[in-house]
Every structure is written in C-alpha cells, then in structure tokens.
Amino acid sequence: MKPNFSLRLRVFNLNCWDIPYVSKHRADRIERLGDFLNTENFDLALLEEVWSEQDFQYLRQKLAVIYPAAHYFKSGIIGSGLCVFSKHPIQEICQHIYTLNGYPYMIHHGDWFCGKAVGLLVLHLSGVVLNAYVTHLHAEYNRQKDIYLTHRVAQAWELAQFIHHTSKKADVVLLCGDLNMHPGDLGCCLLKEYTGLHDAYLKTQDFNGPEEGYTMIKQNCYVSQQDLGPFPFGIRIDYVLYKAVSGFYISCKTLKTTTGHHPHNDTPLSDHEALMATLCVRHGPPEQDPSPPHGPAETSSLIRVLREAWMELGLGIARARWWTAFASYVTGLGLLFLVLLCVLATGEGAREVAILLWSPSVGLVLGAGAVSLFHMQEAKSLGRVQAELQHVLGKAKEAQDCTQSLS
Amino acid sequence: MKPNFSLRLRVFNLNCWDIPYVSKHRADRIERLGDFLNTENFDLALLEEVWSEQDFQYLRQKLAVIYPAAHYFKSGIIGSGLCVFSKHPIQEICQHIYTLNGYPYMIHHGDWFCGKAVGLLVLHLSGVVLNAYVTHLHAEYNRQKDIYLTHRVAQAWELAQFIHHTSKKADVVLLCGDLNMHPGDLGCCLLKEYTGLHDAYLKTQDFNGPEEGYTMIKQNCYVSQQDLGPFPFGIRIDYVLYKAVSGFYISCKTLKTTTGHHPHNDTPLSDHEALMATLCVRHGPPEQDPSPPHGPAETSSLIRVLREAWMELGLGIARARWWTAFASYVTGLGLLFLVLLCVLATGEGAREVAILLWSPSVGLVLGAGAVSLFHMQEAKSLGRVQAELQHVLGKAKEAQDCTQSLS
C-alpha cells in the first residue's frame, strides 16, 4: 500500500418502508429505488425494512450489473428486513439476532415477529479490511411511555458487543441503520461510547439535508404528525457511524440526506430519508488520530453511561419479574377455577355455565402460563446484559483508577 | 516476550449433570467438584449443565480464593447451564445464543427451554490473548431417528461462525464443551474444518483415560445402557479443541479423562467424564506450524463437508416447510370447524356436544397456529444458515480454482 494511499467510499442507507399490504406505493418506490441506486453507483447500499423477499430478489436482479454482490439477512418469522447491495465482492457474512425484541402478544406492533438483527459484511477494498454492519432496532411507539426502552438499550448493548468482538482485525468499521433512537438517547450513547464510533452527521465537513440532520421529517408525505410525536419538525433516528482502527484514519467528506422528496422528482422513496455519505480512508498512524478511543475523559463518560444503562436494565428486570409473578398467579388461579368448573359440571345446577366457562378458562391458563415463561426468559436475558455491563464497568473503573494513580 | 517463552495452561471441562429435582446426589457431587477444583488448581474450569444458579453461587464462594474470576452465562428460560471459573482475571465476556435449539412442544426433552449457547471469555496471560469458549449443543436422544440433527448442524455452524468472527485477534483459541456429537459427525467435522481447531484427544502426546477417549462410559454408575444407545462401551461427545493463530504454536502435553469414578474415590462427579488437559503455548512462526489451516487438501475437505451440511440443511428446510404447511391446514380446518360448532350451538339438536367440542377446537386452532409460526421461523433460520454456507462454499471453490490455476 502506498504511503499516500486514500480510499473513497460512497455509502447509501435507507429504511425502505417496504411492508407488504401496509406501505403505500410499494412497488413504485422499490422500482425507483433500484433506478436511483443504479444511477448513483454507490460502493455499498444498506437497506432496512425490506420485508418482502420478492422485492429483494427484484432489486437483486435490477442491480446485478452495478452491484454484483447482494445479501438478504433472514431472521424471525417475517425476516429482519435487512439487506445489502455491494459493488465489491463480499468476503464474509455473519449476523446476530437480538435476544430481546419486544413482546409476542403485542401483535399490533409486530416487531417481535421480525427477528430484528444486525448483519455483518466483511469487504477487502484495496487492502483495507472493512467491516460493514447494518441494523434496525425496536421501534419507539410512545416516547412518553416507552415500554420498549429497556429492550432497545439491551439491543444497543448487544449491537455494541457484536461490533466490538467481530471487528478486532478490521481496519475500518461502518455501521448504518435505523437505530430508532435520538442522538442523545441512552442506547445511542452506550453504543457510541463503547465502540468509539463517530456520527457522520456530527463529523462531516459538508452536510446537505434537513435541519438537525433529521431523517423523518414533516415534509415527507408518508410521515404523519403522530409518527413524529412531540417533535413536530422531525427526528434523527437513522445513522451512518464509522471509525478507523489500526493505523488508518477515516473522515466523512460529505453527508447528504434527502429532504422529503425523491432526489430526482417529487415523491419520496420511503417515509424515512435516505443518507448518502462519502467517506475517505487514508493512512494515519495512531498518534495522528485526533480522537483516541478511550482516554481519561472518554473512560469517565463511558462509566457514566454504563451506570445509567445498568440502572435501566435493573428497572427492566424488576418489571419482568413482576410480570412473571403476576402471570404465574393468574395461571394458578386459573387452574383452581378449572377444578371448580369440573366440580360444577358434575352437578346439575350450573352445568351449562361451567361448560361455557371452561373454554375461556383453559385459554386463560395457557395464555398466562406462556406470558409467565416469556417474562422469565426476558428477566434472564436482561440479567445477562446487566452482568456483562457490570463486568465492563468494573474494567473501566480499574482503568480509571490506574490512570489516576499514574497521574 | 522472551524468544524461549512458553505458557502452560491447565484446563478442566465437565458436563456436571446438575439438574434440580432430576439428577442423583446433586449436592454431594457439586460439593466434591468444588473440593476437587480447589485441590487441582487449574487455570480454567469450564462447566456445562450447571442448571441451578444457586449451585453456581455455592461453587463461586467455595472457589473464590483459587479461582477469583467466575461467570455464569444466563440464557433462555432455565439458563444455558454454562459457567466458568478462572484463576486469571477475565478481560472480556460475550455470549451467543443459538437461533435453533429444538422444539418448544417437545417439553419432555427440555432443550428448547434452556437457551443453549456459547460463552466467550477473553484472557490475557503473559501477553498471550486467549479466547476461551464453552458450549453445550442440543442433545441426541435417538441416533437412529435423530429429529434434532439439522438443528445441531446449524448450531455447529453458528458456533464455528462465532469463533471465526470473534477470535481474529486472539493468539490462542480454546473450545471446551459437550458438543453432543461423535468425532466423525457432520456438525463436528464442519466445526473443525471451518475453524481449524485441533482435537486434544487426537493430538495429545500423553492420553490417560477410557479407550477411544470416551466421555460417557458404561462403567459410570449414572449412565444407563439407554444413554449409550448402539455404543455399549461408550461414546465421545465432550471435547477440548484448540488452535494457535498468529506466530504461536500450541500443543497438548497431556489429556486425562476420568474413568467412571471420582479421581479421589469411587463415586463419579457426573454422568459424563471430566476432561483435564495440559496445553503448552510457545512462539512458533507460521512456517513452523505443522498444520497450515487451509492448504489445498484442507480446502477440498472443507468443500466436501460444507456441501454435506448444505444438503442436510436443505432437508431440514423441506421438513420445516412441510410442518408449516401442515399446521396451517390444521389451523384453517380448525377455524372452519369452529364456525360449524357456532352454527350447531345456535340450534337445539347438538347444542351440548357443540359447546363441549368448542374448547378443544379453540386449543387446536391456537396450538396449530403457534406450531405453524414456529416452523416458519425454523425454515427462515435454516435458510439463513444455508445462505451463509453457500457463500463460504463459493469462496472456498474460488480459492481452490485459484490454487489449481497457479499449480
């Protein structure tokens, strides 16, 4: 590799809102997305919410010349919705499905059925090992009373752990996706603090797009005021994050975000805005790196965010245990009621009523039993994340103490 | 690090058969296990089937002086059963829960409820980065008609992928656990071929234990003839596997396996035998490594095993799709039957029969619906593994073609 080596990387990210039978103008939007990607000739296009594998196959065929490598990350009952199109050969593929992803009985929200995941692609570009990750975390339906907050924090931690452990030999790490978190949200801070990833919007030298880098805006005709909640102008929940690891330096030359319209005409490609980043990778010995990953200041803010996440998980565990206990009591009472119904059914007086009540009671017992088992598993999974956080917290404190005693 | 550097690593592995209310002499065996580990002073003790967190806490307390670092890998509803005790500080912890792990309706087998997983510990020993993995795969209940074979192959692939992607910067990789696979089984070959891990039993200079390295033997009073199936003398399903990566060389000096008795008296510690390995790590430039990971011969045997696994997964996908279709038909028929029962209940003739049949019919519809969704998810997960295998197969063939055209 030459000393004045430089690699230019053009990346596209979009939450496609491609939900069969639900999303408006689906076929038309997917067709125009294909045309746009072919025209723009990106290095990498990372897509979320492609919940129709037929649409992925359609895109694969349409993009085959410009993007010969493609992959769909299968997961859950419906699919993760994640897919990727690459101009360069994909060397390796891997994925991690989040352990916690909402509740199966919240059918109207549907996240549980998708098997939300993070996908990893390893690419070798002019001798640079690039680990590109694409993800989509659990949606936020009600910011004021967010029952999925703990799950999203746990997902952010699993994402951070997956990136940390799988990117140790990568030169450049890139994460794109719909995190369903605002920039200052706990999960977002945890992810950035632990992995050392930089936010393209905050770091770019040239941003072109809606104010505050919003990726869901009121100008988009598919976005309702309800989607934006208490943020009438917009929210930023889609990200391009990156870092360079060993002896490389990465910067974001330009970041362009669509502004509620298709870049070439008036109808938007999705209810989210597309992110288009131009990244530049060049040689930079570690001492030239302007932001060392874990100096004393970073360690102390890492400790703060780890503590906060640890506490949030503690609350989640308490809630999960409460639901486990409640559902277990209901199961027990339901069983007692079934015994009572059996006794009544043998007599003559209330026989018909007993038989009529039998069916909903059996349903109640089975349903409450399943809910109890589900929350037992939830508590176990949250406990696992909390134990991992506790361990990292201990190590971070050790490092802090060590630095303080040296200075 | 000195040029004549050498690191001695003493490792203990045991499937503890610690199942509350089921396993015989549980408390006594766990107590004696603690005593034994304290006496022997291993570097690392990796345990499976510790399905009581109280027992883990008891061991943690008992072993605190000799093994100050310990971790329990929480998972599923019951727990993964995996835990570890280390004489050296644990730098990092991570775990991966297998996507496929049997069927929830096979309650008597129980594997689904455990959330079988692989746990990872990163240790820094005299400058050597050691990635130690502990795992337990789905049990084999009937070798002649093994309905879990595809799931175990999928688990072996996920395990291989997890090791491959998380150990890229490790100097030494160690995997211990109960793989529930015989040495020549498809999943075992896939794991070893893809990761390049060596089997301590086959590589050791000094083996001391039952013939063929069996880890479940007829001499063990807790093992029934039924457990051994068509192998009356024993089976080898517990392993110590290892490899050195960059510039290091690892060898197994001794491997000792218990012989159906506690090493210090007559009652065994578990229904499985314990494995005790002494590994030696020293500097060895790559060219001195006697077994390069992926030469032409290795590539062709990797291709063979990848193909075989791909086909097995194909069969699994067909089965999962059949069950999805069957359960969907049953759900549909059940719904029709419910409509019929509603009609009958409005009349006088068969009213009581209709009301009596209502309850089991609702159960049938819900049960069949759940089974259908489960197998849909199973097909998706198997499809994901098959796609990953397909990708690796393509890359391996490319490498083979490249080697052939060069020679």
TrEMBL record, chains A, B:
Membrane-spanning intervals of the chain: 326-347, 353-374
Cofactor(s) the protein requires to work: Mg(2+)
Catalytic activity: 1-O-hexadecyl-sn-glycero-3-phosphocholine + H2O = 1-O-hexadecyl-sn-glycerol + phosphocholine + H(+); a sphingosylphosphocholine + H2O = a sphingoid base + phosphocholine + H(+); 1-O-octadecyl-sn-glycero-3-phosphocholine + H2O = 1-O-octadecyl-sn-glycerol + phosphocholine + H(+); an N-(acyl)-sphingosylphosphocholine + H2O = an N-acyl-sphingoid base + phosphocholine + H(+)
Record carries keyword Transmembrane helix: yes
Chief location category: membrane
Keyword Magnesium: yes
Location of this chain's protein in the cell: Membrane
GO MF terms, alphabetically ordered: metal ion binding; sphingomyelin phosphodiesterase activity
Any single biological process term in GO: ceramide metabolic process
Pathway assigned in UniProt: Sphingolipid metabolism; Lipid metabolism; sphingolipid metabolism
Enzyme Commission number, as recorded: 3.1.4.12
Membrane topology value: Multi-pass membrane protein
Keywords: Hydrolase, Lipid metabolism, Magnesium, Membrane, Metal-binding, Sphingolipid metabolism, Transmembrane, Transmembrane helix
Annotated Endonuclease/exonuclease/phosphatase domain residues: 25-272
A cellular-component GO term for this protein: membrane
PANTHER family linked: PHOSPHODIESTERASE, PUTATIVE-RELATED, SPHINGOMYELINASE FAMILY MEMBER
Family: Belongs to the neutral sphingomyelinase family.
Protein name: Sphingomyelin phosphodiesterase 2
Species name: Fukomys damarensis
Lineage of source species: Eukaryota, Metazoa, Chordata, Craniata, Vertebrata
